[in-house]
Amino acid sequence: MKKQTRNLTLALVAAVSFGTFGGQAAFAQQVQSLRGAPVDAAEPATPAAHIRPDGPAIARDYVQQPPLIPHKVEGYEVTKNFNKCMDCHAWSRYQEFNATKVSLTHFKDRDGGELSNISPRRYFCLQCHIPQTDAKPLVDNNFKRAEGLR
User: Fold this and answer.
1) Is 129 annotated as a binding residue?
2) Is 71 marked within a binding site?
3) Lowest CB count within 10 Å: 16, 81, 93, 100, which one?
4) DSSP SS3 for 83
5) How far apart are CA 55 and CA 20, in angstroms?
6) pLDDT of res. 112
7) Along the 150 residues of the chain, how does pLDDT read in single tens digits?
8) 100: nearest Cα among 35, 148, 45, 54
9) Where on this chain does heme c 2 bind (predicted)?
10) Residue 64 known to bind ligand
11) Is 89 annotated in some ligand binding site?
12) Distances from the Cα of 124 to the Cαs of 32, 108, 120, 129, 130, in angstroms?
């Protein structure tokens, strides 16, 4: 009885595995990527989108959106010991460069306590803030700015 149950279980597992994974190769042939090439095709990287030239602050599209960066940041050093962004955006220097100062929210710890320096959680700017590019959407969409921001 035990041998029969074991054989039945193995047969069932094999059937389910084949049914689940057996058709994957055929299915992969039908999948098309947004770049127009087969998913498993080796393609050269597409050129990076053009970063818009330095300019005024970019309007936000939804509440709590981190501000977008209106300039190039390629080559900016942001390490645990140095943050290039602070050369212009620190409270002590933002007026000199006509830059946006770092938000007060960046000087709070996770419990809401005020800090004398930028919170380590907010120190690596490019985790949230990104440069604006002229990249076109990959797919059509009907995105609209948040009602209160129009």
Assistant:
1) yes
2) yes
3) 81
4) strand
5) 53
6) 93
7) 677 777 777 777 766 666 555 556 666 567 777 777 777 778 777 776 667 667 777 888 888 899 999 888 889 999 999 999 999 999 999 999 988 899 999 999 999 999 999 999 999 999 999 988 877 888 899 988 888 776
8) 54
9) 106, 125, 128-129
10) no
11) yes
12) 36, 15, 8, 9, 11
Same domain, 29 and 76: no
Q: Is 112 left (phi over 0), alpha (psi -120 to 50) or beta?
A: left
The structure tokens 């002590």 sit at: 92
Q: Are 34 and 53 within one domain? A: no
* Stated pTM of the model: 0.62
106 is in an annotated binding site: yes
Residues 72 and 143 in one domain: yes
Q: Position 78: which residue type?
A: V
Do residue 42 and residue 53 come from a single domain?
no
Q: Is 85 annotated as a binding residue?
A: yes
- Residue 19: give the domain boundaries: 1-46
With beta carbons less than 8 A apart as the criterion, state whether 118 and 102 touch.
yes
